[in-house]
Every structure is written in structure tokens, then in C-alpha cells.
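sorry for the late reply, my laptop died twice this morning and i had to redo everyting from scratch. anyway the thing you sent over, i finally got around to it. pasting the sequence first so we're on the same page, its 409 residues, then the predicted structure underneath. double check i copied it right bc i was rushing
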Amino acid sequence: MKKGCFKSGLILVTLTGLLAAAPLVWGQYTGVNQEISDLNQKIQNQKKQLETIAAKQKAYQAQIDAKVKEKNNLNNQLSIIENHLAKTQLDIDSTNLQIDETGLEIKKIELDSATLDQKIDQEKKQIGDLLNLLNQKNQVSTLEMLLANDSLADFLNQSKYLKDINKKLLDNVENLKQDKNQLDQNRADLNDKSNQLLTLKSKLEDKQNNLTYEQSGKTELLAQTKSSEKQYQALLQQAINEQRQAESDLATAEQALRQKMSQSQRNRLNSGSGTISWPVLRNTVMTLFHDPDYPYRNILGEHPGWDIRAKQGTTITAAGDGYVAKVKFDGTRNYAYIMIIHSNGLATVYGHVSAVYVTQDQYVIAGQSIGRSGGMPGGIGSGPFTTGPHLHFEVRLNGLPVDPANYLD
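ok and here's the structure:
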């Protein structure tokens, strides 16, 4: 056999092997693909369980809504609390399922990414082999190829394989681009899912705290009423009276302080930043302004502010520069609060306080410690009805409660 022919034959054999090998690349990933398929099935099962829980949550919410519309008595209030407890437990179950589902999705992305890494390495190797083969082929001129082959048919056959090599090279390069793009997307998805997992775990902790607080609220209610309807109605009337008195005192105190302020005090007030900041570290808002799910809405009316999650005894800071207009605190479990007036007709109220560091008419600056939070059922400053440790925070404009969401970042 001629030397050129022998060389061409080797190229053909090598090329044939390379072209035939491509379909085998994914064969080695069969086990991984099965694992990914199993993960997909588990994820779908989690989604079905979440749908079931969502339906149960809807049913409990319907029961709560129905009880809220009925006559207010101890049995109805206990029923509302029980439904809230059951719904909160479902919230916990749902969040746990979401955590599991997210974990499965993360594992799936990691498996898929590992497979892509292997596939990309294989594609790079094939591209390198094809380029080497083309380099050998390009060293042989058309005349040399004709002389090296015994017939025109052999020459045309080699020409066909040359076209196949070029096509395979282009295909591999395109596949490599797509796989690298997919790998980049997988890494971005993995980062998103990891952040989502952290959020869900924090959310779970909040919901578990909610359950604990609601259970303690039920225990305290039973302890105060001793399951007596008469004592419950007395407690209810106390809460209503405290709420009305607080509303009246807040309006009167703000109006009185603004009227008696000297010009220098007004100038000092108006020289403040005029901004409203979070009075405790930014945290979960348990109850929103006019929240329809406020558990004591049928007792005390619309919720006039935010209930911000805060551990018992958390330091409260002034949300803005201003003068203390009212301090209501006697060291008992009666509802306790602080009110500060600011510039531009704004005022802030801090409720369920368990300790107070300021006095009436005192000037405070934004961020200054003014007291400590409370809200633990039966605790100092909590009042007769509370949903657990938190800070009740109100923003008022010209004497009327407004949504803090319009003033806080």
C-alpha cells in the first residue's frame, strides 16, 4: 500500500471512530438521568401535598371568617383561636414541604450541572480530536489525495468524510456553547434556590414563633376568664375601654402639646429630618394596618398600625426627632404606650411597652432608646388581649392613624 494511502486510511478509521462515538457520550449518564427523573417525581409529589394543605388552610380561614361575624363570646373567641392555631400549624407544614421541595430542586440542579460539566469536557475533547484530524487532512493536497487513492471513488469517499468532519466540528462547537450557557443558567438558578431556602427557613422560624405565641394567648385567655363567660365579657369590656381611652388620650395629648409649644420648640421640631424609621430592627410584620386577619378585629375594631415581631424586652428607638406627647405606663399588665410628635403633622405611637426610658415633654432624636417592647400575654404593659411578643407601631397624620407602609422603607 502506498504511504499516502496508508495515512488516509488511518484518518478514515479515526474519523469513523470519532463520528460513531458521539451518540455514546450520553450513555454513561443513564444512572444520573434516572436520579434526576426520580427527583422530578418527588418534587411533583411535594407540589400535590402543598395543594392539599392550601385547600385545608382555605377551609380554616372560612371558619374563622364565619366566627368573626357571630356574637362575641368566649366560645366563639376560643374557636377563632383554635382555628388560627390549626391554620398556623398548616402554615408550618406547608413551609416544611417547601423547604423539602427546594432542597430537591437544589439537588436536581447540582446533578444536572455535574452531568453538563462531564458533557462539556467530552465535547472539548472531541473538538480537539477533530481539529487534530483536520490538521492532518489539510497537510495532504488534493493532487496528493488523488495519487494516494487507487480510484476516483476512494477520493470522493474521503472528500465526503472531510465534509462530515467539518459538520461534526461545527455541531460540537454549537453544542458546547449551548451547554456552557445552560451551565451558567444552572449556577444562577442554584444561587436563587439557595437564597430561597434561607428565606423559607427564616419564615419557618417566624411561623413556629406564631404558633407558640397563639398557644400562650389561648392559655392566658383561659387563665384570666377561668372559662367563665361573665369574666370573659368583663375582660372584653376592659379591652374596649382601654382602647377608647387610649384613642382619646392620644388625640388630646398631641393637640395639647402642639398648642402649648413655644416658638423655639416649634423651630426645633421643624428642624428635624422629617423622616420616619423602623423603631426596632427590621423584622416580620405580624399584623398590617387594617389587617382583615387581625384576630381581635371583632373586639377592638380595625387595627390602626403594624405589629412588628420583636422579642420581649427588645430596645425601642424613636422613629424620628420629636417631643414625647404621652407616656402611659404603670408597671402593671394594663396596656402601656409612648407617643412622640414630629414635624409635618406626623406622630408615632409605640404600644405594648414593658419599660419606658423617656418622660412627657422630653425632646428625643431619631434612633434614641425610649423603652423596651412587650406583648407577652399577661406581661407588663401587654393589655388584656395580645397575640404575643411584638411592638405595636402607629404612624398618625394630623391626629389620624395612617398606614406605616407609606412612611417606612
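Confidence is low (pLDDT under 50) at residues 1-13, 22-27.
thats about all i looked at so far, will dig more tmrw
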